[in-house]
Amino acid sequence: MDREILKKKIAEDNDNVAFKELYDFFFDSLFNIGYSILQNREITKELVSDVFISLWKTRNKLSEIANLEAYLYVAIKNQCLRYLKRNAMEKYTDSIDENKLGIKNIDFNSPDRVIEFAELKIRYDRVTTNLPEKCQKVFLLVKDEGKKYKEVAKLMDISIKTVENHMLKAMKALREEFRKEKNNNGIVKSILFFFASNQIFQIFIELK
Question: Are 169 and 200 in the same domain?
Fold first, then answer.
């Protein structure tokens, strides 16, 4: 069924069947966008569902949406980034001065910012994925599991100095990737703030 007809049937007739067809049509593409940002299948499914729940609740306004596909793509990116921001803020708010770092006033609800942030996240993931195996393992143990350098050294049976060298290599790779974003320094800082640990974020800021 044509999407414009679907929109009309949902908005005017509260048609559940039409809504289910719309859901089935867009679910996979929205899931893929969300998963590229979150790398977590269950949370992505929940957030995609939230997007459709919100769409159903405001179905009487569907006719006002000129490009439903673009609207939904921005909506899922927005949901994912809000989720990440909320979790990061809970984790790091007490230890980071946002004003000094220049990230407090970034508008994460702006569609342009949402898309830009998502693209930066993809680049961040690409850099960390392409790190040498041991370097990547050290980085992920520190970033994802919040382990101290001493703990990582013991776990991997390497020296603390070697852990430090791996972390320095990882952060230099990230900084080199984002060095070109000179005009968006606040956004670049934010990508590290929201997707890396506080410790890694501070290393990134201090690197010359």
Answer: yes
